Amino acid sequence: MSPPPDSNADEVNRKLVDQYTEIARLAGGLAHEIKNPLSTIRLNMELLAEDFAEAENPRERRALAKVRVVERECQRLQDLLDDFLNFAKVRRLKLEPSSLNRQVKQVLGFFRPKAKEAGIEVVDYLASDLPTVLVDRESFHGALLNLVLNAEQAMPDGGQLVVRTSATGDGVALDLIDTGCGMDENTREHLFDAFFSTKRGGSGLGLPTARKIIEAHGGRIDLQSEPGRGTQFTIRLPVLTRLPAEKGSTST
Fold it and tell me: What's the DSSP call for residue 199?
């Protein structure tokens, strides 16, 4: 007797998940292996730069300029590898009761000096009656900071960032609204795709990683944007009535 169709579909899905998990593991291992020789290259470039630090003729100055180019590219590769490993790694969340407003204030406290230098006014409207949520403070801080820095990059000539929290029917919401350049339809559709970036030299992994972290919390992130009219990210988190055991989230 042949197994029912649902059983076949479940088996196929299980094999696909296993295959993808193995590919992700191998990719992470490869990235780690690349970091070792890259560190050696960077160290030797630094030593060469010291040797040519007091270049006395055109040939030595050209050599120093080439060394600096290699140093910059090594740093770019290092940043890309770090972003990739952060995106691909298995996350074990340490969920703890926390105030969403407290998480927001910590990120804004870190960001405000940078915002002042960039000519960005930060305006916060934080609701006072928010229920408690469960968050992994370190990973959520990183996700929220990434979104705030993304808003800064969208306002190279300054602007305003509005940060607003509110209670919803089944949880809490956080809105990040900037007056930046906005996005066209193609950018909106691909913004959370891995390696998609509109910034020169960007890894294209910051926002996909932020979304993975938010979804690992049982939440979701929504996007609204129009060219020339700014962008709004909305994070929605559920309110859980009891503290669960630590939650592991395998990257997919």
Answer: S
Instruction: Give 213-217 contacts, CB < 8 A, sequence gap 24+.
Output: 213/91, 213/136, 213/139, 213/140, 213/142, 213/143, 214/140, 214/143, 216/91, 216/93, 216/136, 216/139, 216/247, 216/249, 217/93, 217/95, 217/134, 217/135, 217/136, 217/140
Q: Residue 108 has which token pair?
A: 């804004």
Q: What is the pTM of this model?
A: 0.67
Q: Within a 13 Å sphere around the CA of 5, how many CA atoms are in the beta-carbon half?
A: 0
Buried b (16+ CB within 10 A) or exposed e, 118-134: bebebeeebeeebeebb
The dotted CATH code for 93-242 is: 3.30.565.10
Cα(113)–Cα(119) distance, rounded to whole angstroms?
Answer: 10
Residue 103 has pLDDT above 80, yes or no: yes
Per-residue pLDDT band for 251 (boundaries 50, 70, 90) equals very low
CATH topology classification for 5-90: Helix Hairpins (1.10.287)
